[in-house]
Amino acid sequence: MARLPSLHLYNHQKRHKPPLPWLKKIARIALPACQHEALSPDAPIRVLEEIEITFVSDEEIARVHGEFLEDPTPTDVITFHHGEILISTDTAERQAAEHGQSLDHELALYMIHGLLHLGGLEDHEPEEAEKMALIQATILRLALVKMAQP
């Protein structure tokens, strides 16, 4: 198994207060499973020394989305293969309400989604998106079970 990169979480928006210590614990528990799902031995998640996860607003993620992916609309997660993951808390809030989940649960799901992207998984095609959604939900469920254990 690949060694685990260090994880750094940051909140760069004012509207929400993500529970960074709790989210970091979830990410640490989920990281080995995400590495296991990597599509190749040299996937970024297996070779990076550190991963930075930053929570931003819709406005900021739309700016980055436009600058790097030529789509100036908000999105949930943007993952850069150098180890940076941006997550929109505004989008997470909307999606959480639509799915009947808490904001914290949705943010944790988005972190795992970003980590899986670092493993080479994609979600551009419906089949890929369905597979990725199943994997990330399973990893999150297992992480939550581990968090609940004494």
Number of helices in the DSSP assignment: 6
Helix content: 55-70%
Q: Structural class, please? A: alpha/beta
Determine Rg (CA atoms, Å). Answer: 14 Å
Mean pLDDT rating = 95
Counted beta strands: 4
The major sheet is characterized as:
4 strands, mixed
Task: State the end-to-end CA separation.
Answer: 26 Å
In short:
By secondary structure, the chain is an alpha/beta fold.
What does this protein look like?
The chain is α/β, with parallel strands linked by helices and 150 residues long. It contains six helices and four strands, in the order E-H-H-E-H-E-E-H-H-H. It has helices spanning 20-36, 44-47, 58-69, 89-99, 103-118, 126-148, and strands at 6-11, 50-56, 77-80, 84-88. It has a four-stranded mixed sheet. A hairpin with a 3-residue loop joins strand 3 (77-80) and strand 4. Helix 1 runs parallel beside helix 5 and helix 4 (89-99) packs across helix 5 (103-118). The chain is globular, with a radius of gyration of 14 Å. The model has no long low-confidence stretch (mean pLDDT 95).
